[in-house]
Amino acid sequence: MTNRDMTATLTAAQDTTFTAITTAIGNDEENRDMTAEIRPFRVEIAQSELDDLADRLARTRLPQPAPGDTWEHGTPNHYLREAVEAWRAFDWRAAEQRINAVPHFVTDVDGQPFHFIHVRSQNPEATPLLLLHTYPGSSVDYLDMIDSLVQDFHLVIPDAPGFGFSTPVTEAGWDTARTARAYDALMRRLGYDSYGAHGSDQGAMIARELGVQAPEGFLGLHVMQLFSFPSGDPAEFERLEPQDYAALEHMQWFQKVGGYNTMNASRPQTVAAGLSDSPVGLLAYSELFHSFGNGTSLVPLEKVLLEVSVAWFANAAAGMSRSYYENAASAPQDTPVNASPTGVAVFADDFQSVRVFAERDNSAIVHWTRHPRGGHFASLEVPQELAADIRAFFAGLR
């Protein structure tokens, strides 16, 4: 059965669909009483919203270009000019149809609305699996991987609080640890008493937090990054391999260009004002899809526009930015050790996790692979290679 067939079967059994733009779940008592209810959801953007976007894009005013108009100073005009024209021609209705080809739902956990994709496998031996998205991505990160994973996994693909259609963020405090607890509650609500997780970027940090919390039945985590850094102990450096020094250079490069980290973690509402009012501002601020690997990204522009369109129509910029603020405010003094079974897939043009540092903070790394092609957004770049690595890790845990 294809995902489209599965969707049709589910839709036929459901009497109600929910419109993404009009579904706003507040934190009043009436809505809190609905916490345990799982409701079908459908992404249906009003034509007036599409017309508004088209009007804004038609009136784009680009900044004065930096000398040379290169990526050295941030997103250059030549890229934005091309991307804006492509966005004006982007077929949102076709994208919307593709998004809705899999089953979507919404539920409240801890007073917060969570939107998620849920595709059940026809395989009775399938493993329940959380797929946790990047920043500045959303659940659509994984659309290209559903068909290749659903044979072996029941897939649950949530939008983190403030991302995609998990909006609005109803209260402060939605850091990585709280989100991990909410995901565990979601899996229990769906009837899964054991499950695993895969994640990249923010999703990797939430997956690792699940490993730290180790809820009953948690099988393990597969991630694309373990964000472990030098402790200052000289003995760590004595064990480094040549490829690890290249990884340190990549860390230094990203620290130099990752100014959005500081802005999001300190003044998220300030930057969100511009991102929420200007689609081109949001597009420029989403430069990671193109520039994380220093120009090596394989993400097609059409997929970048899908990601940015979701964030635009959901008005998600503020919640996405505040996620950094929440994590900065709750950061522990000492890094807790993750003792859950852990697998790592390191892609050539992504953050290069250093195993010496990672093993200090994660005591049960049982799978470590390197891939010669792909980067930070491997689910959008090389989805088949990533899916194969996920399957190999969880098969090794049986």
Automatic annotation (TrEMBL):
Keyword GTP-binding: no
Coiled-coil portions: none
Keywords, alphabetical: Aromatic hydrocarbons catabolism, Hydrolase
EC number(s) from the headed UniProt entry: 3.-.-.-
InterPro entries named among the record's database cross-references: AB_hydrolase_fold, Epoxide_hydro_N, Epoxide_hydrolase
Domain of life: Bacteria
Pfam families for this protein: EHN
Molecular functions (GO terms): hydrolase activity
Domain (Epoxide hydrolase N-terminal) ranges: 38-141
Family: Belongs to the peptidase S33 family.
Name of the protein in question: Epoxide hydrolase family protein
